[in-house]
Structures are given as C-alpha cells and as structure tokens.
Amino acid sequence: MAEANQETTPRQYINIELLTEALRTGNIVQFRNEFLDMHPYNQAEFFKELDEEDRLNIYHYLSPEEMAGLFENLDGEEHEYREVLAEMSPSYAADMLSNMYADDAVDVLNELEKDQVVSYLTIMDKEAADEIKELLHYEEYTAGSIMTTEYIAIVANQTVRSAMHILKNEAPRAETIYYVYVIDEDRHLVGVLSLRDLIVSEDDAMISEIMYDRVVSVSVGEDQEEVARMMRDYNFLALPVVDFQDHLLGIITVDDIMDVMEEEASDDYSKLAGIADLDSIDRNPFTAAKKRLPWLVILLFLGMFTASLIGRFEETLNKVAILAVFIPLIAGMAGNTGTQALAVAVRGIATGDLEKENKWKIILREAGTGFITGLTCGVLITLVVYFWKGDLFLGCLVGISIFITLIVATLAGSLVPLIMHRLNIDPAVASGPFITTINDIISILIYFGIATAFMSYLIE
Ligand code: ATP
Ligand code: MG
C-alpha cells in the first residue's frame, strides 16, 4: 500500500528545484509563495528529503503555526521526531506543538523522552498543554490514545439558528465540523447531528427535535482495532468517545483510523512471518537477527523432532527406500495448504468477520475445502507416481497420504489461529513457520503410518 502511495504522489504539485533553490539562496518571499500553496502532505514529503542545513533554514522561513500543519502530516519514526525537534529552538517547537491538533501533538510527544515532554509542556500555551496532558494519560492502542478533544458539542435546548452560530465560531478549532454532538448539562452524550442535518433544517427548529438520539459511541479504553472495525461497519466519518458514565470525552476521526488500519495490517503480516515487528530497512543486522532468532531456534528444535520422527520409521525406510523420495513432497504440500488456510483465518479474525460465524460451519467448510483439494491432488499424484515408477500401490500410498494430509493440514491451518484467538493469544502469532512445522509432523506420521501398516504390499 505504501509503495502504491509513493507512486501516485502528485509530483507535479511540488516544484522541488524551485523550492530548494529559493531555500538555499535565501529567497524567503519566493519560497513562502510556493511552499504555502502546497498541501501539508506534500510539504511534509518535501521536508523529509531535506538535510539538516536546509531544515534549519525552513524554521526561519516558516512560523511555528505554519510548521504545525506540515508536522501533522509527517508520520515520522521515533528518531526522526526526536532529531528534528532538537534542531528547533525549544520555544519554536513548543509553539508549533500547541498549534497542532492535540491528537497529532500527542503522537509526536509519545516518541520523546519523559523529561523532554515535560519541558515542552511547561513552556507551551497553557490551554493546549492541558488538553495534551489529558490525552497523554491514555494507554497506547486504546480509543483514548487516538482521540482528539477538538470536537463540537452543543446543548439540545436551542434552535438550529443558534447552533449554526456556535458551529461557525468553533469551526476553526475543531478537527471535524461534519458532526455536531449534543450533550446535556453534565456532558452526557445525548444526540448527534450531521452538518447536512443542520443545513436542511428550518432555522427555528429545536435541536432536541431533529437530533438523532441513538448515538453509536466507543468507550475510552476500547482497543483501537475495534474502533476501526466500527468505523468501517457504520461508515461514519468520526465516532464519539465516552467514559463509563457516557460523558463525552473526545472524538476519533476517520483519518486517524486509516493509520491504525495500516499499522495493524503490517503488524499482523510480520507476526505471520514470525517476526515480532516488521524490520525497517535501515535496522542493522544484529537487531534484525535478534528478533528473528528466537523463532528460528524454536523451529529448529521442532524440526529436529520431525527428524527424529522419521528416524522412528527407520525400519520401514530401510526396507522401502523409495518412500524417502516423497517426504519433501508430502510435507511441502501440507505446509502450503496450511499457510493458505492460515492467511485466510488470520485475516478473518482481524476483520472480525470470522467471529460472527458459527464455529461448526467454519470447521465443515474448511474440511470440505481440504477434501476437494486433497482429492484432486491425491488422484493426480497417484497417476503421476504410477506412470513414473510403474508401481500402483506406491502411487496409491502417496495419493492417499496427500489426500488425508491436505484435509488435516487445512483444518489445522484455520483452527489453530481460531483456538489461539479463543485463548486470548493474538492469532497472528500462530505464524506461518509454526503451522508449517506442525503440518510437517502430521503429514509424516500419516505417510509412514500408512506405509508401515501396509508394508507387506510394498515389498513384494
Ligand atoms: P447520509 O449517509 O444519510 O446521506 P451523510 O452522508 O450526510 O448522511 P453520514 O456520515 O453518512 O452523513 O451520517 C449519517 C447520519 O448518521 C447523520 O444523520 C448523523 O447525524 C448520524 N450520525 C453521525 N454520527 C453518529 C453516531 N456516532 N451515532 C449515530 N448516528 C450518527
Ligand atoms: Mg453517508
């Protein structure tokens, strides 16, 4: 997704040469003319490419307020935020942070050291600092940590005309003006209106009459993934966040949810591959190896277990050496089908679609899929082995093994993540390599089990 994004960046909107030249030659007027015309996202893209010297110039050319818009779009890594903020004078940085939307400022501050955060908060504009302090309390990955307090709330006992008046006054500071939330005197959330609802209503209509009072909200401790799911299901542009007594605390807007979705998706993907955190490209080999090694070592021992399993069938193997030829084929097929089923299951769990389904229905469907794929591959391989080795019994043995293996491996690939999810273990850690190894073991047991049982037919 990220790659597609880069390709579609409207480069034509950024006149890089002109900007860089104006920046280096100190042509402030020209730089500001061109730069402030760009969308903050493009400004941020330009900013990311600069070296320290150019960045230091920019801080002189732009006010903290102008810098705030750029920073809201920066999406930086930890060290980037730390480095860049350190280049600014403390008062410039603090000014910029107070001009940012509170939730974006919190994202930046969360990447800094504690004492640095405190020092910025003390020199910052007091009102902004208070808002940010409140948000900093919330646990990472919860609704509270991604919400913003810059929403518009009105009371029910007024006309549309006066509500529009309030809206007009508050609009410059609000993160979104499309939804107006209605609260009572104790700040309980009692209703919601969209801007469209307001515009199409009579000026003299009372808010209490036109508002929608079955408000969908999330509680402040809710997992951000769940918030993303609700946002997708209800198709709202923002969701209100409440405490356990239904007091309105903030809102979460759809743009922040898009970041959550990307974060969670890449998170699940890397866990699927057995890496705790997707390695960024610039990480050095030692840190990357440290993350991957624990998994590889566990898998190494599981693999030795598989080897010792094969060893237990040594007698069978000694008598019919040809059996060994098909071990990689059967184990490989088990791994392949298990990984396919696993990918589908993990995605289903992540999107919440699987939870709504009846468990037996899932098991039946997976068994059915395994049956069809197993039968097809089994018959195919039976014929191939028969024509290749001229041994119908050997063909049937490999074919039947593949048939049973594919059914079991498909079931394992989809059920293991479901069971893990039930046990409250993140299903994405039931990663690909893990399932592959389990399926190796199962498939070898099946293959040699059948072979040993019908040994007499093989030796003729
Ligand atoms: P529509 O889709 O009906 O044409 P719209 O596109 O203008 O409306 P939507 O964002 O789809 O607006 O919101 C639809 C309706 O849902 C609005 O009337 C709004 O009042 C209501 N609404 C907004 N947020 C919430 C919420 N959290 N809970 C319940 N209703 C909400
Ligand atoms: Mg709509």
TrEMBL record:
GO terms for cellular component: plasma membrane. GO terms for molecular function: magnesium ion transmembrane transporter activity; metal ion binding. The chain crosses the membrane at residues 293-310, 322-346, 367-386, 392-420, 441-459. This is Magnesium transporter MgtE. Acts as a magnesium transporter. Its main location: membrane. The keyword Transport applies. The keyword Membrane applies. It comes from Mesobacillus foraminis. Residues 147-209, 211-269 form the CBS domain. It is found in: Cell membrane; Membrane. Homodimer. It is a multi-pass membrane protein. Keywords: CBS domain, Cell membrane, Magnesium, Membrane, Metal-binding, Transmembrane, Transmembrane helix, Transport. InterPro entries: CBS_dom, CBS_dom_sf, Mg_transptr_MgtE_intracell_dom, MgtE_N_sf, MgtE_transporter, SLC41_membr_dom, SLC41_membr_dom_sf. SMART domains: CBS, MgtE_N. Belongs to the SLC41A transporter family.
